[in-house]
Amino acid sequence: MKTMPFTGAVIVCCVFVLLCGGGCSDSAKPATATPGRNPQLVIDNRLVNAANDFAFRSYAQLAKTQAGTNLFISPTSIELALAMTYNGAKGSTKDAMAQALGVQAMTLDEVNAANAQLLTLLQNPDSKVQLNIADALWGRQGFTFDPGFLQRNKQYYQADVQTIDFTAPNSADIINSWVSRKTLGMIPTLVDYPSIKDALMVLANALYFKGQWTTPFDPKATQEGPFTLPGGDVRMLAMMRNSAEDYRYLETDQFQAIALPYGEKYVSMYVFLPKAGVTLSAFTGNLTSPHWNQWMTQFTRQAGSLQLPRFSADYATSLKDTLTALGMGVAFTNAADLSGMLPPGVTSTVGKPVISDVIHKTAIRVNEEGTTAAAATGVIVTPTAVLPSFSMTVDHPFFLVIRDDPTGAILFMGSIVAPEKL
After folding, report:
1. Is the CATH number 3.30.497.10 carried by domain 13-213+311-383?
2. Rounded CA separation 272/254 (Å)
């Protein structure tokens, strides 16, 4: 698993609350939207709870292999990309994906309907917040896919469904151009040509967020200050400063936490700062859905002052190992059953569909005015018959054999250590 480090060393835990603004109930009944929004907009809490739990489990798995490095993901982007793919899963693969996503108690129709509600609710306008979410599906040119699978992705996920010649060198450029447009250039590339040239399908989600602080920081108050890195070294960063009489604040013996709202206060950034003697890994070890729900009920209004770094960050990772650890490893093997992507009764002539990788990239910029952040997730589906690609350059001494294959007779053999120019 490869990661791309942040451009700054920001070791606070920033969580964008896009699924529920406070504690999430365990009830399966729909919860009404935040007052002030369209009262007709509702969300099935079962999906919210499952998605939040998936977020914390995913984070925990990534943190195991990326300890000491920056880690920034968009659970909403990942969940939506996988939910689109889930529509093509059957049998044990569907069960495994349901386990990973935490939606075992919901039918496929309920998952799709809840995600449609979520998309509508999250994109409800706020005068000082821009939140754009887009989904797309590129199918292999000349290949027939199940109409119902395509229609569900159009209907529930507003997916832009297209065909593409994955063998064309510019196929990655087409997908990356879509991602870049939908994230306003914050995620310029998601896939590369070698990773998709044999693909049957690529399913993608792109998310762009721009929010102005409800109470902006005064740029004149920003001053350089020390930021201590994990190894003890100190880096000087631009520290934004602010104070207020009614911050939403929480303090325990383990951490301090503050909620910084955007715009009309539908979305907030929550910053958790481990106390002296408590490592970030120790804090994140307790970062579970039950603890999160408990903490969300414990914030109180308090006067105080805040110093927060002004920073930018970029992150990229493969989620294959993480999702395997969460229980959906079968989807990445030859035993995968994604036959729901194919027309009923039709068997692919190029091999069964299997997920070859799930790519996730994010970016964030935080300054005195607010925050911009973007994410993109790509699910790459390839046929099982595709052989692993390789690169071989014969540029040093080698051994060769000329063989008559029907009989097995070796006609020539030898070592070539100093070939002459022909």
Report:
1. yes
2. 10
